[in-house]
Specification:
mainly alpha; 394 residues; globular; 77% helix
């Protein structure tokens, strides 16, 4: 019997798996600019320059990465590894892309724990913490403009999530999921909706199952693994979408980190290459050392890896299903609302005086006016300014 699966119809690759791994290692080491920039680099190099990947395969991978929860750039790298080398290629490409930035944040975590009380490090994060506010604010504005548009339902979801994030000081995962379900039912209602049944029962009982799970007495590493697995499995949007979710868990609920430590963790993610989500490695290190960093990173990236390789063979056929598209639109609107709300939440902790307020405003204005200005440049400049201003004002 002839296999007609479109994902299997590929000519022999013009590159070796080792060449792809080396490329991903380089991109993970030098790829600054956030998920959109990283996706652009892959298109420029793998599609246009080397012609290893076709434009159609790239677009399919980008669409899947945008629709599935988890870090977009990492998922795109995993999918591109899958195109010609299937599961082995996806696995090695994903590891190669994430490993360099993971090692960097672990090293910074060690330095932070060992020398965090030194004046120079406090001065660096004094400036960087303020600049992060501007970076997230611009990202929130761009995402809002791109994803919400004039859709009244998505706008309502967005506003609700902004308010709930500010009021509760965290992202409520159940609201994000509910936003997807509401949009799905509104735009493409399933046939069983009127009859209710098992699906409705499962949805109404989900909070009970969650509360029972949360009442178990679990070890610290197990708690870390469960929490970061949820972060990787339920957070949609750009890499910054994970920020409010992490804040609610590691600062508010579990109290693993102080508010200052969390802001510093976000700053570390901004000054290192690779996916923003790699900040989980830094957070894990502060909680439980190298083991904590490893568990946090593994738990975060395994779900996004599975969400990429499992649907990959079927994505061409079902990727444009109205129900799936509607669900993703809803959760994306909620995620963008949470990001916008997190700007206010984090600003309350990072802007502590006039200089930090001016730094946050300056970062926002510069990124707004100069479109080609990259986040690492802003962060490095803020760090240098912090070194100068901190001894004067603090």
């Amino acid at each position: 019997m002839i296999n007609t699966d479109a994902t299997d119809v590929h000519p022999k690759p013009s590159y070796s798996l080792w060449q792809l791994i080396v490329y991903m290692l380089k991109l993970g080491t030098w790829g600054f600019g956030g998920p959109v920039a990283l996706a652009g680099y892959m298109n420029r190099d793998l599609v246009e320059k080397y012609r290893w990947i076709t434009e159609s395969d790239y677009k399919e991978g980008l669409a899947l990465a945008q629709m599935a929860p988890g870090p977009m750039a990492a998922q795109l790298a995993i999918y591109l590894g899958y195109v010609h080398y299937r599961i082995l290629g996806a696995t090695l490409a994903g590891i190669a892309f994430v490993a360099p930035s993971f090692l960097m944040v672990v090293g910074l975590g060690w330095a932070y724990v060992a020398y965090g009380d030194l004046a120079w490090m406090q001065a660096v994060f004094y400036g960087v913490g303020a600049a992060v506010i501007g970076i997230i604010a611009i990202s929130a504005q761009k995402l809002t403009k791109k994803t919400i548009g004039r859709d009244r339902l998505l706008l309502a979801i967005y506003i609700v999530m902004v308010g709930s994030t500010v009021i509760t000081q965290s992202e409520i995962a159940s609201l994000v999921f509910a936003a997807g379900v509401i949009t799905w039912f509104y735009r493409a209602p399933p046939k069983w909706l009127r009859g209710g049944g098992l699906n409705t029962l499962m949805m109404t009982q989900a909070p009970t199952f969650t509360s029972l799970w949360g009442s178990l007495d679990l070890s610290l590493l197990t708690q870390i693994g469960i929490f970061f697995a949820k972060a990787g499995a339920f957070v949609f949007g750009s890499g910054l979408a994970i920020v409010p979710f992490l804040y609610g868990g590691v600062v508010v609920d579990h109290q693993w980190l102080t508010e200052k430590q969390f802001v510093d963790a976000v700053a570390v993610a901004m000054i290192t290459p690779g996916p923003v989500v790699i900040t989980v490695g830094f957070i894990g290190y502060l909680i439980a050392g190298l083991t904590g960093a490893s568990v946090a990173a593994l738990a975060t990236f395994v779900p996004c890896y599975l969400f990429t390789i499992l649907p990959a063979p079927y994505f061409k056929k079902y990727g444009k299903n109205p129900s799936l598209v509607a669900f993703v639109d809803g959760v994306t609107a909620a995620a963008v609302g949470a990001i916008t709300g997190s700007v206010i939440v984090i600003a309350q902790r990072s802007i502590i005086d006039v200089p930090t307020a001016l730094l946050a405003v300056a970062a926002t204005v510069l990124l707004w006016k100069y479109k080609k200005l990259t986040e690492p440049v802003v962060v490095i400049a803020a760090a240098l300014i912090g070194l100068v201003l901190y001894p004067i004002f603090r």
